[in-house]
Design goal:
seven-stranded mixed beta sheet; Aspartate Aminotransferase, domain 2; 14% strand; four-stranded antiparallel beta sheet; globular; alpha/beta; Aspartate Aminotransferase, domain 1; 42% helix; homodimer; 2 domains
Chain lengths: 396, 396
């Protein structure tokens, strides 16, 4: 028998991954080109050439024992310094390597922080719809995830509702900006209001409430959208970053935490997070990839590629009469389903070989997430299938 | 404030890592060549050339989107198949990819298994001295680690004592063979007796007791020592492996779990372990390194290098009058300290720039662990320091 906690997780296994496996199954039957798999945030833009160049350069010029060896659990000092300096240049901050912990992707960074902060029963607030793995990351440490719903059709957090949800037990608030699954970018004005609420609540309750900025999609923004850097707006902010999307390296599991010196109990939290990195079995972020991301820190993925997909898909779907939230960031399009039960819609879409993720997987039913990090050709080829789906489901 | 659990971990932070940091500090003062750092299991033999060749080959010939992208959480199918076939060839087993889960090193594999198996209060037995991180890995999931001490000077498990320690709550027993920190290889006869005890206890108690074989040091054995492959001796065995030592890739965090089809509740445990891999934030083992280890699966590190170190150090220390357990595997030498308080001995050793790890870090005081995975020159150069330490501490 498996543990009781895992029984729950097995029963509610990630619908995203289930749809991904379903897409692979359909592709094996009908051919890859006849399946329109919009399920997974797996970038279709290859890593910049600079990544392979950096790997070859490191293999040729750096000591193998160092490149593949153990370092401090928080990561190589030179790598952390490079990243800190890059952040300082971009955001006018003054981080040093002592504010950085290299992590096994953003997912490990969040686990490290929750392991560090949460006692059983502590509350973490997330704005729904949200990346549903947050639930697991919080309950891993016996915390309780509380949802504060964003209102349609803007899907930005409501500071008033946040205020009402905060209790003495609130240890952290997660912000995921640009947002997965909606593609919305929360503007500065909303962030400023959230910061005001948190400051006031900290004072009122005599607690520290940490704002966890989960930003794997920071570099993926379109048109004029600007993603505020949260440590500049709220003192108790911790940032989780990943190179999965910015450099198309999701399988490599490489990211970092920024723990600013200004946060309450900084020394204690940084030390504990370093130890949590070790005892949770990550030990350290993959060594070669640490060295690679430092070498290509100024490289970015081909945002124009995703932008073209975004426009094509948005125009196609709205043209067919679907009701979509216009995405400003990430590579997801959030679409209202014609029927209330979006799972039914997903099942019908599957008949046309369109693979979607139901909104309930993000705690928001009546919507679906469409990951447009696919090839442009897939979007173009999917038009006929979408047309048939529209005819079948949209009221004339 | 950090979580209560982490307060304990911060207070008892790994002495191994502390000594490693101390070694780095001394090296920065006295020069690297004047510090004899035997603290960390960080291989001094570079990865085989085949590793860099494989990386270059993959970059040149495989699709970047596949190499750096997401795959199933359990790892690439072709990689798992290659490893399964290699194990079958070596051990006469009949594993397929469906028995393999690629992991972020052995540490993540153990965390995945304990997350999968343990309910709060469940017991896991380890034979002391043992790698002290086991404690963290078990308490991460509110399990309780119970020690069954090995007797000096052989330091092999005593099946009778194991039998006495098993209760209705015993979910797992960890065996680490070759052993860290003692360098002892547990022989087949002991494994057979342990298997007998476990089978009988399972029947008596009506429970399943899983044997967790933690074998990062499997390939590092000397002279005629043979390391039994545990699934062949006990049905409910799960194997955790790492390429950290076998290919000198400790920083890359790459390993795997073998979950044989024959174990009780196989389907459920495999599915849950796959999900645990995801929700613990590993998501998947680093992708490029998965592909690399499959390509070089028949490569091994230079065991002769460690063997020379082993002989030189063992002869040097016994020649000086120290009482050592002759190592047969791994790259650790386990030495009795002349005084009862081995921490005092470590402090004295530090005065001669010799960095050791106290046995209490492995739950066995009166001994120290000497990691001889250093350069041969370091061992030779350390002789004078050892001589002075012997003069100061050994009774004439």
């Amino acid at each position: 028998m498996i543990s009781n906690k895992m029984v729950g997780f097995v029963q509610n296994n990630s619908a995203i991954r289930a749809m991904f496996e379903e897409g692979k199954r359909l592709a094996s039957i009908y051919g890859k080109e006849n399946v329109y798999d919009f399920s997974l945030g797996n970038p279709n833009v290859p890593a910049p050439d600079a990544v392979a160049d950096a790997i070859r350069d490191i293999l040729a010029n750096e000591d193998s024992l160092m490149v593949h060896g153990y370092m401090s659990n928080v990561g190589y000092e030179d790598v952390r310094t490079t990243i800190a300096e890059s952040l300082n240049k971009r955001f006018g901050t003054s981080f040093t390597m002592k504010n950085l912990i290299m992590t096994v992707g953003a997912a490990s960074g969040l686990n490290v922080i929750f392991k560090t902060l949460l006692n059983p029963g502590d509350e973490v607030i997330a704005f729904s719809p949200y990346f549903v793995e947050y639930n697991a990351y919080v309950t891993n440490y016996d915390g309780i995830l509380k949802e504060v719903p964003c209102k349609a059709p803007e899907f930005v957090p409501d500071p008033k509702q946040l205020e009402a949800a905060i209790t003495k037990k609130t240890r952290a608030v997660i912000i995921n900006n640009p947002n997965n699954p909606t593609g919305v970018v929360y503007p500065v004005s909303v962030i400023e209001e959230i910061a005001k609420v948190l400051e006031a609540k900290q004072k009122e309750l005599g607690t520290d409430i940490y704002l966890i900025s989960d930003e794997p999609y920071r570099e993926l923004v379109y048109a004029d959208a600007v993603v505020p850097y949260l440590p500049k707006y709220y003192r108790n902010t911790i940032v989780g970053y990943s190179f999965s999307k910015s450099l198309s390296l999701p399988g490599e599991r490489i990211g970092y935490l920024v723990i600013p010196s200004e946060i309450s109990d900084f020394e204690q939290i940084y030390s504990a997070a370093a130890i949590a990195t070790r005892i949770l079995g990550y030990v350290n972020a993959p060594s070669l990839m640490q060295r690679v991301v430092a070498k290509v820190i100024e490289e970015k993925t081909d945002v124009a590629y995703y932008d073209r997909n975004r426009k094509t898909l948005y125009e196609m779907l709205t043209g067919l009469g679907f009701d979509c939230v216009k995405p400003e960031g990430a590579f997801y399009l959030w679409m209202k389903t014609p029927m209330e039960d979006e799972k039914e819609f997903c099942d019908m879409a599957k008949e046309y070989h369109i693979i979607l993720v139901p909104g309930s997987s993000f705690k928001c039913s009546g919507y679906v997430r469409i990951a447009y990090c696919v090839s442009h050709e897939t979007i173009l080829r999917s038009e006929e299938a979408w047309k048939q789906l529209a005819e079948k489901t949209l009221k004339k």
